Amino acid sequence: MAVDRGRYTTLVEPERGHKRKQQQQRRLVVAMKARELGRKGIVVGDRVALVGDVSGRPDTLARVVRVEPRTSMLRRSADDTDDTDGIERPVVANADQLVIVTALADPPPRPRMIDRILVAAFDAEIDTLLCLTKSDLAPPDELVALYEPLGVSHIVVHKGGSLDELRDHLAGRISVLVGHSGVGKSTLVNALVPDANRAVSHVNAVTGRGRHTSTSAVALELPEGGWIIDTPGVRSFGLAHVSVETVLAAFPDLVEGTVTCPKGCTHLGEGCALDAWAAAGHADAARLESLRRLLASREGAPDEPPA
Ligand SMILES: Nc1nc2c(ncn2[C@@H]2O[C@H](COP(=O)(O)OP(=O)(O)OP(=O)(O)O)[C@@H](O)[C@H]2O)c(=O)[nH]1
Ligand SMILES: [Mg+2]
Ligand SMILES: [Zn+2]
After folding, report:
1. Which ligand ends up closest to the CA of 184?
2. Which residues sit with their C-beta closer than 6 Å to ligand 1?
3. Which terminus in the chain has less CB density within 10 A, N or C?
4. Mean pLDDT, to the nearest integer, of 7-17?
5. Mean of the pLDDT values across residues 194-199?
6. Which numbered atom of ligand 1 lies nearest the CA of 161?
């Protein structure tokens, strides 16, 4: 559920049919990594095996001896350079939904960041939901139009407003909230989970940027069932590990148009067969534009808001 300076907070579910009564309670157990795991990373969302003192009593410490195979893994490439600033990278295992949280204003939306997170989600094979916050400050229409051709589900929320639609999307699933600092991720978690007590802080009025209030990822159980994982605001999202093929696979309607592309085609222009294919009426122009925008989002420096 949480990772903090080498301490892993885990939730232990009672084993079915277990004889010993006192071991049957659902409880939080703090653990450290057993030496035999070496440098293998353990992240929020991982399912692990524990040994040692698994009572969960104060001041006890169990050991994690195994990490179960993951159904999904949200990755950021090692090309990110912001891992020296003490902000934990939001790498989460076993999530089945990635909620891209974007404020409609304060801080302003950055479509390039949304595109990059979408590409990461395609790569990790995690469903996406675009959650547009702070609708009291600006309308959502422009952003919604930009993501319509991609078929990304979206919801629009504001503080104090109804979250019923969001709750419907989250119920029974493991969802991870990702987005820039200050977009309102922890505010959402506090509204969705009673007693979540996630710290929130206002956006810096001078720089227009969030203050990186949350510093580590935490998984919280939803009253409707399912889990929500709050993560620290991201500055960038490395995508060096994602191939052209992976992005293209998210556009099955366009794949056929690439069969006559030159070998190693980037599909970004110059000699790409998709132009002729689209001109012949086989492709939806907005879809092709979206594919190219997502492919292009992989290039160059990770999204870095101006200082
Ligand atoms: N006007 C307005 N402000 C909001 C809304 N949602 C959140 N805020 C404010 O935005 C600021 C940032 O909210 P947080 O929840 O701390 O943002 P965060 O995404 O968790 O930020 P980090 O933890 O730094 O990544 C706070 O001052 C919130 O009160 C909203 O719908 N409308
Ligand atoms: Mg936060
Ligand atoms: Zn091409």
Report:
1. 1
2. 133-134, 136-137, 158-159, 181-187, 200-203, 210-214, 232-233
3. C
4. 85
5. 86
6. 31
Query: What b/e string do you get for 263-290 counting C-beta neighbours within 10 Å, with b at 16 or more?
Result: eebbbeeeebebeebbeeeebeeebbeb
Q: Determine phi and psi for 31, rounding to 5 degrees.
A: -140, 160
Other C-beta atoms closer than 10 Å to the C-beta of 246 total 17
Provide the token pair at 233. 């605001």
Q: Give the integer Cα–Cα distance in Å for 51 and 64.
A: 7
Q: What is the pLDDT of residues 87-114, one digit of tens each?
A: 445 578 999 999 999 999 999 998 888 8
Atom of ligand 1 lying closest to residue 233 CA: 25
For a substitution probing ligand 1, which of 106, 187, 188 has the most ligand atoms within 8 Å of its CB? 187
CB atoms within 10 A of CB 47: 13
Q: Would you kindly state where each structural domain of the chain is located, as residue ranges?
A: 2-67, 73-230, 244-298
The 10 Å Cβ neighbour count of residue 67 is: 17
What percent of the chain shows pLDDT beyond 90? 57
Going by C-alpha positions, the residue among 20, 34, 21, 29 that lies closest to residue 1 is 29
**pLDDT tens-place string over residues 232-268:** 877 666 676 788 999 998 899 999 999 999 999 999 9
pTM confidence score: 0.87
- For ion ligand 2, residues whose CB falls within 5 Å: 185-186, 213-214
**What CATH class is the domain 73-230?**
alpha beta
- Given this model, what pLDDT does residue 260 score? 94
In this structure, which residue's CA is closest to atom 10 in ligand 1? 184
Give the ligand at the shortest distance from the Cα of 185: 1
For 168-252, list the strands marked E by DSSP. 174-178, 218-221, 227-230
Of the ligands numbered here, which is closest to the C-alpha atom of 211?
A: 1
